[in-house]
């Protein structure tokens, strides 16, 4: 059993991840170098399996399972490379926000006198990310000015932002990425613990998902019994089950990025430039397994319209307890 604590921003709450190469119902215990040993065993023995459980421990000692227990396959799961890079997709017009996005991109919406983008940048820096690439488009100069305040920032503009989807923004900056990275959307408000969850996941390719938010415009996720991505859609009729909602926070390997580029180029050859990065993740999932980590009570929201902004101000930010 590998055991590690990840303190949250609240002093009475922490995140503890257990990785067991035995019965997942067994009592947690601490062993030296089990992470490395489990990884070695899985590579040497195809029948070896391990389970991953993530818990949030509150001030009263109660445990709430936050990730589906699953058997993991040995060919893709473990990543020993620390994550130091993040990509933020920020090219969109934000047209559904009306007057709120007329002078600045939606990433510059302010919650409690701090913009979404700066809140995210600062959170990333606090979690060991020292290189942040922002894929820009609409009002790109706002992000270029921001990069003067943060030497860790690099901007890369998608010149066709008005007619392409988010995947093309990622495609535009592909040559700047040579190591595993976090992939985030620019219009997110999320509790800092979200980054702890995804960075603690041992798998190389992870989609962070939440429980139901009932926020409107959700992207629903369907995964296999093993917790591997099968499908994502805003249209529930396209899914046979719903296991979580896309948060817009992901961890990707260079191999996954390569597969996404191949997928993108095939789509672009047929003239389909409107697809988003979520489409590519689903498109490569049968060839390159992607894990879905569901944190049922994650505090977060996306702000795409005025209703989302109202919810962020009145519900989500107060729940973050910052």
Describe the fold and architecture.
The protein is an alpha+beta fold. The protein folds into two domains: 2-65, no CATH class; 85-320, Alpha-Beta Complex (Spore Coat Polysaccharide Biosynthesis Protein SpsA, Chain A), CATH 3.90.550. The chain is 26% helix and 26% strand. The strands form four sheets. Strands 5, 8, 9, 10, 12, 13, 14, 15 and 16 form a nine-stranded mixed sheet that branches. A four-stranded antiparallel sheet has the order 1-2-3-4. Strands 6-7 form a two-stranded antiparallel ribbon. It starts with a strand and ends with a helix. The model is unreliable at 1-77 (pLDDT under 50).
Note the main attributes of this structure:
322 residues, alpha+beta, Spore Coat Polysaccharide Biosynthesis Protein SpsA, Chain A, 2 domains, 9-stranded mixed beta sheet, 4-stranded antiparallel beta sheet, 8 helices, 17 strands, 26% helix, globular, disordered N terminus
């Amino acid at each position: 059993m590998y055991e590690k604590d990840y303190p949250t921003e609240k002093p009475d709450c922490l995140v503890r991840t257990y990785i067991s190469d035995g019965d997942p119902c067994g009592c947690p215990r601490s062993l030296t170098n089990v992470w490395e040993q489990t990884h070695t065993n899985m590579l040497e023995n195809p029948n070896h399996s391990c389970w991953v459980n993530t818990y949030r421990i509150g001030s009263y000692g109660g445990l709430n399972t936050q990730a589906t227990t699953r058997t993991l396959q040995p060919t893709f799961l473990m990543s020993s490379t620390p994550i130091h890079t993040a990509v933020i997709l920020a090219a969109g017009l934000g047209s559904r926000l009306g007057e709120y996005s007329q002078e600045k991109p939606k990433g510059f919406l302010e919650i409690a006198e701090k913009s979404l983008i700066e809140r995210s940048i600062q959170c990333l820096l606090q979690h060991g990310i020292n290189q942040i690439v922002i894929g820009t488009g609409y009002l790109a100069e706002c992000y270029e000015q921001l990069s003067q305040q943060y030497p860790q920032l690099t901007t890369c503009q998608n010149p066709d932002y008005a007619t392409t989807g988010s995947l093309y923004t990622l495609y535009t900056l592909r040559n700047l990425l040579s190591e595993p990275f976090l992939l985030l959307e620019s219009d997110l408000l999320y509790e800092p613990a979200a980054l702890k969850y995804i960075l603690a996941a041992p798998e190389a390719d992870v989609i962070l998902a939440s429980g139901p938010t009932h926020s409107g415009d959700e992207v629903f996720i369907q995964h296999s019994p093993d917790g591997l991505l099968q499908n994502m859609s805003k249209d529930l009729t396209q899914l046979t089950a719903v296991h979580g909602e896309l948060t817009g926070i992901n961890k990707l390997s260079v191999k996954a990025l390569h597969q996404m580029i191949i997928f993108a180029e095939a789509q672009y050859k047929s003239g389909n430039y409107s697809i988003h990065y979520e489409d590519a993740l689903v498109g490569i999932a049968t060839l390159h397994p992607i894990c879905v980590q569901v944190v049922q009570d994650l505090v977060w929201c996306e702000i795409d319209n005025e209703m989302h902004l109202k919810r962020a101000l009145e519900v989500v930010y107060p729940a973050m307890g910052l």
